[in-house]
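Many introductory courses stop at the sequence. We go one step further.
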Amino acid sequence: MAEQYVGAIDQGTTGTRFMVFDHSGQVVANAYEKHEQIYPEPGWVEHDALEIWRKTKLVIEEALSNADLGPDQLAAIGITNQRETTVLWDAETGKPIHNAIVWQDRRTTDRVETLRDEDKVEMIRGKTGLEADAYFSATKAEWLLDNSDPIKLQRSRPEDIRDRAAEGEILFGTMDTWLIYKLTGNHITDVTNASRTMLYNIHENDWDDELLDEFDVHREMLPEVRPSSDDDTYGSTSASGFLNAEVPVAGALGDQQAALFGQTCFDEGDAKNTYGTGSFFLMNTGEEAVDSEHGLLTTIGFQRSGEPVQYALEGSIFVTGAAIQWLEDVDLIDNPGQTEELARSVDSTDDVYLVPAFTGLGAPHWDQRARGTIVGMTRGTRKEHIVRATLESIAFQTRDVAEAMEADSGIEMQSLRVDGGAVKNNFLCQLQSNIIDSDIVRPQVDETTALGSAYAAGLAVGYWETLDELRDNWQVDREFTPDDDATGVDERYGRWTEAVERSKDWARDSGE
């Protein structure tokens, strides 16, 4: 029998990747394709779900072909995905009724403010562990039901979408659900993605009727919720489909929970931070859902078949890597690799602070109307200062969350496991260590999001038998400890908090 591997679909905000891993957790195949970012109005962000499905098939085929692997060599496929991004589709045609609304989208800000005015924030937080925010799926689904054009469903008569949704003819999903449906024909999500919808009660582990009524989302639309690593599997690809093989789809986790799993943070107190478009700091809190009093989210970390749910505290930072992309957009850099050189070329930011609140502020501030702000500029400010301030903003936002995390959990963090594209920047890793006064540990395999979903799927089908096998796979690439440049960090952090305050509530008169 040909050697077996596990595949992982990593469906992200800017593109889709397919990776194949061997038993030691090493990458043996890899392919990536970007998809279009659609901005219909200021503050709105959409994706074409059909384009994402086409790109998903393409990267699977490319990765297998490039590595000269056959689909029969895949023991299982796992899925990890951009969370909260929401798509509704016609169950008969399999076509979306509208573009997917992306997690970054702010079009439902007014709806969230209505929830606050009606004193429903605590009710939502108590059931879901989430802040009432346009970030999550509930208001996106509500908007789609209210605003999608039934004529675009390409049916013989323009039926009322809500009536069809009540009959289960319009289906709801986050991107994991969409891909599972297209791969297997089954309407399924996992507990981690369900926990990000603002419709799921994380204590009862079920869709919540009160929340469904609040957002007028019908239970019949919703997917079945399964463990993140599912011994029963979610179904298999079709022998007559694009792979011409039956491959079980056996694991799914939202991207940040997948990174937690891929970093082998299986024990209470283990923590990781992923630096992607945004940054997402998660700490495993075990079987206890720890309520946050400092602006963090309580979320589901993962669940294995037949085992209790493992919970996590999360600090969601909306813009970190995207701030570096912004530097490219405004021609301050030609590529992300330049940031390290430019930041090292000056001794400091010269008291310049950049707050990248381009889509509001997430944890622990939760200000939907905050906007990007640069303060402290003088006639002597150069692009090097702004670039360094951008990198510092990533590290300072992480400290905001780290302090909240320690206050909520009562656990003093000694080290933080990091992953994501930005951690290739050694200057940023050292800066982060200095600013949070903790060791920063970077693993050899930095694609921990895809690896986590592969681990979940592989465990489900017996490719890996125990968590200890996965722990043995985890290897350190480099460790960063606080150095002499940590001097004066607390004073600079104080100035950072002043800059954050200046960014808040800026968009209140903008009509967004």
